[in-house]
Amino acid sequence: MQTDKVSFKSKLGGKSFLRNAANRFIHLIARIAPGARSFRPFLHRLRGVKIGKNVFIGDGVYLENLFPECIEIHDQAQLSVRAIILAHNRGPGRVIICKQAYVGPNCVVIAAKNRTVTIGEGATIGASSVITTNVPPFVFIGPQQPNIVARVTVPLAATDDYWEFVRGLQPMANDESEQAEKSDTGEEGGN
User: If DSSP states are collapsed to H, E and C, what string results for the chain?
Assistant: First the structure.
């Protein structure tokens, strides 16, 4: 019986059930509450996130639920709408967002177990980027451009059967997808 209790508590990051529930409740309020430079940072501080002065936390920002104490956000950093900061992947890691860094909308920053991911001072992370390694100070990380991987023969919107859509995908070779991208953007070579 004792092993079940230890196992359950370890799944909660070593915290009591009540502390974990309180963290999640406060986190939920922080995601929808007003006060990007005041109330939201205050609520996340209550949860254990280390937050400096004049930090901006946008609407819907998700800051680590299980190990909020593993996130550090320095002065004047900004987290845009729906950014996701995770300080665990198979165990706790650590995320440090340095002074005046900007994490764009829908970005994901994730640290694996026993690793630290640092967003350097003044760095800017473009919308929808995924960050799993350190970002040097004063650089811009742009989102990876989508690439064409298959030709669609059965449009997903035209069928109720997902597997019919999947069976209808025709993988494209690199030169074919590059040609399709060029024709799509009007970059077709010619006269």
Answer: CHHHHHHHHHHCCCCCHHHHHHHHHHHHHHHHCCCCCCHHHHHHHHHCCEECCCCEECCCCEECCCCHHHEEECCCCEECCCCEEECECCCECEEEECCCCEECCCCEEECCCCCEEEECCCCEECCCCEECCCECCCCEECCCCCCCCEEECCCHHHCCCHHHHHHCEEECCHHHHHHHHHHHHCCCCCC
Name the band, by pLDDT with cuts 50, 70 and 90, for residue 145. confident
CA distance 65 to 151: 39
Q: The tokens of 19 are what?
A: 């502390």
pTM recorded for the entire structure: 0.77
> Is 117:134 a contact under the CB 8 Å cutoff?
yes
- Domains present along the chain, CATH in parentheses: 2-141 (2.160.10.10), 150-185 (no CATH)
Give me the sheet containing 130-131, strands edge to edge: 62-63, 84-86, 108-110, 130-131
Rounded average pLDDT over 43-64: 97
Q: Which residue, chain included where needed, has tokens 């967002």?
A: 97
Q: For residues 131 and 149, what is the distance between their CA atoms, to the nearest angstrom?
A: 23
Percent of the chain with pLDDT over 70: 84
